[in-house]
């Protein structure tokens, strides 16, 4: 059942190019509510993921994880 739901979302957003979630700040549209929520953080300045080493903050966890490699690779030559 979940597969069908994900497939339906994929078809609507990718193939039919539907984007029902609109940003109230800039009118940009998104196919997924989560994408809109993440985008709104670019307007609000919210960055919920913080690097415990240097304090730099990120909107997406994956960006923090990528950033952490900078610290992990500093001691290696």
UniProtKB/TrEMBL annotation:
InterPro entries per record: Zinc_finger, Znf_C2H2_sf, Znf_C2H2_type
Keywords from the named record: DNA-binding, Metal-binding, Nucleus, Repeat, Transcription, Transcription regulation, Zinc, Zinc-finger
One GO cellular component, as annotated: nucleus
Cross-referenced SMART domains: ZnF_C2H2
UniProt keyword annotation of DNA-binding present: yes
Lineage top rank: taxon: Eukaryota
Keyword Zinc: yes
Transmembrane annotation, as ranges: none
Domain C2H2-type stretches: 21-48, 49-76
GO terms assigned for molecular function: DNA binding; zinc ion binding
Protein's cellular compartments: Nucleus
UniProt xrefs under Pfam families: zf-H2C2_2
GO biological process, one term: regulation of gene expression
Protein name in UniProt: C2H2-type domain-containing protein
Species of the source: Anopheles atroparvus
């Amino acid at each position: 059942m979940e597969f069908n739901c994900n497939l339906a979302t994929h078809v609507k957003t990718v193939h039919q190019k539907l984007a029902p979630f609109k940003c109230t700040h800039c009118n940009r549209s998104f196919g997924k509510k989560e994408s809109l929520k993440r985008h709104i953080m670019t307007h609000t300045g919210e960055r919920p993921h913080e690097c415990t080493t240097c304090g730099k903050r990120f909107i997406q966890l994956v960006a923090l994880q990528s950033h952490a490699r900078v610290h992990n690779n500093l001691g290696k030559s």
